[in-house]
Amino acid sequence: MSSSFLSSIRRACNQSVGKIVLNSDRCYWNLKCLGRYRAACTSQTALQPRIVLGIETSCDDTGAAVIDEAGRILGESLHSQKEVHLKTGGIIPPVAQRLHKENIHRVVQEALDMSRISPSELSAIATTIKPGLALSLGVGLEYTLKLLKQYNKPFIPIHHMEAHALTVRMIHPVQFPFLVLLVSGGHCLIAVANGISDFLLLGQSLDEAPGDILDKVARRLSLIEHPECTTMSGGQAIEHLAKQGDRKKFYLKSPMAQHFDCNFSFAGLRNQVTQIITKKEKEEDIQKCQILSCVNDIAAAVQHTVASHIAKRTHRAILFCKMKGLLPQSNAALVVSGGVASNRYIRRTVQIVTDATGMALLCPPPKLCTDNGVMIAWNGIEKLKEGIGILHNPEGICYEPKAAFGADISGQVKEAAIKLPYLKMKIRE
Length: 429
Known about the structure:
By secondary structure, the chain is of the alpha/beta class. 40% of the residues lie in helices and 16% in strands. The chain has a six-stranded mixed β-sheet with strand order 12-11-8-9-10-13, sandwiched between helices. It has a five-stranded mixed β-sheet with strand order 5-4-3-6-7, sandwiched between helices. A two-stranded antiparallel sheet has the order 1-2. A hairpin with a 4-residue loop joins strand 8 (178-183) and strand 9 (188-195).
């Protein structure tokens, strides 16, 4: 390779080639775009791939993972508090905090050990700082700040819902913009993802989240006492029993039927179900903590109503996006993520909508729908690639139990007042 050619490369890349050995087998040059691209060299002196440690403690799962920029999971660990909170009938924040403190060091160390990456080799550390339970978020942030000080690494603070929204890009080559539906135990929202940390919020829950109502109904039905559900979360128990039930045995009014927007509401539905349960308990003359004979039918009815409500609001969001040109005319995608996205019945109901509107439905695998360190690390990788949201001095950083998500344009959706065409929400198990 001539010295004049090396000189041209040196000038085009605006860097010193130095003593790097260049040969045709180990370097690739884009000759047409020589002035804009640097050599991709695989020699021993080439730059190492970017690697991020992600830490998640926003609620009741302590998660950590090490991810590289290609999306390879080099190491991960997760400690679930589910069994503890099942016994107490719900998440008690001080208990969650204590369990996070007891397990976070072990979880992070297990992820690092599995990856065979030392903290000094990390490109950055990414940690959930919003939104979530204050006591839980505080544990993750406090532990992260100690690591940052010890190893002098950049910090990437993560919005929990953004991490859920972008996890799918680690698996599928979905391009911006796309529509994203996030459904979990603490959140329910639908938004247009225009880019990393660039979202347009179309609608969100005005009261409770879908996962929360499923858990509360499960507790009211005493499903922890059901022989088939003793180790299941509330949402898992509802989904399991609903398969054996007849949803038509109980009529539940669909929430917000007269509101032509994309917001969600589940509190009224929960009140309807509570009234039905109380009435049936009197009819069957049973006490609380005993199982109703019609429990499968109630589970089927509430699951279908939750799924139908989510699907209808999603349908309106898709029509609004098409009307406003917010999504590609071809190959438009809806991403569904969050813990409730693991519910197969809800996914199938949403798929009825995407099939009818010509959208592709993309869901991360169930393991990545629930809270985990992988999604946090991947969000960190995406931010690192874009060069956004990277703090070299995290002094003064705080966690935020409540946090907005994107630019709120839900008012525009309401003004559009789109009426939905009829779709038959019939799911075959």
